[in-house]
Amino acid sequence: MEDLDTLVLRTAVGWQAQGLPVVLVTVARTWGSSPRPPGSLMALNGRGETVGSVSGGCIEDDLILRIREGGVQAACATDTPAVLRYGISADAAHRFGLPCGGTVELVLEPMSPRSQLEALLKACLQRRNTERRLDLRTGEVALGAGHRDGVPVLSDTHLTTHLGPQARIIVIGAGDLSRFLCQMALGLGFEVIVCDPREEHRAGWALDGVQLSHEMPDDLVLRLKPDARTAVVALTHDPKLDDLALIDALQSDAFYVGAIGSRRNSALRHERLRTHFDISESALHALHGPAGLYIASKTPAEIALSIMAEVVAVKNGIRQPAPTPVAIGKQSKQGKHGEESASFPGCEVVA
């Protein structure tokens, strides 16, 4: 499953190839509460079809009506980009469903060859962070090196936005836990790759939309070169596989590196990586182990939810100690109820 930005770009390029007039809509600025953050994308074609969103649906309805009544040029007023503001008055906020009187400012851009959408889509698929600078006076676009999480900047003459690669997760180990985790990751818009060199574990393991590799985990990590939009999660409980992947992942730009296991096994893993592989303390501090947020999970599905919640939290800039990581939550629970349970092999409560 593609992330929403990639889906919007790919769909808009496809509509252009069909000869349909297309408008790209970008959330440039917001004030107060708003349903979608700056940088959110939406595309509309001349038939009133849409992909992506800039609100909860209310603003989209107004834009669709504009196009159906007067075409793409009517939505933008001219054949060059236009800036629209919704919610500036209490009445407009109520009409368009903006919460708490929030205001959203949109840039509507009629698509043409000068928009460079194909080149932008190609850069995203090649996992290149790209800055897109739109001249509001002419519709000309310049592309250059950028950073994925840059905030849009709107001036009187230009809109500058940043786009980049889809979030990606590399999962070491094919099993029930991996299946639940991958299903959640796909639903969250991640590109998902599962690596397991053990033929008996791969046999019968398949999930639509997931790449399945039989490489050794360290070879895969070295080949893919995890970037700042990549997470690596080790789920095998086999040090020969997990440790090798973690060694290279911890020395990459991956935004999240984690492994399942008890607190005791996690401590032993830290010692192995420190003593035998000379992994630095700063790198070890970045290792999430046991992986996940503490939700007292027991089943594979609950453990997968715990891990993906932490992955998303870190991706979105939330760091420890809030929310509570598994190790701290288990320590608190043990203090209240005695020794931690060992009832489910392979989950966060393994002794």
Automatic annotation (TrEMBL):
Q: Which Pfam family is one of this chain's hits?
A: XdhC_C
**Source domain of life:** Bacteria
Concerning InterPro entries, the annotation shows: MoCofactor_Util/Proc, NAD(P)-bd_dom_sf, XdhC_CoxI, XdhC_Rossmann_dom
Q: Where is this region: Disordered?
A: 323-351
Name under which the protein is recorded = Xanthine dehydrogenase accessory factor
Which residues does the UniProt record annotate as the domain XdhC- CoxI?
A: 15-87
> Where in this chain does the record put each XdhC Rossmann domain?
169-311
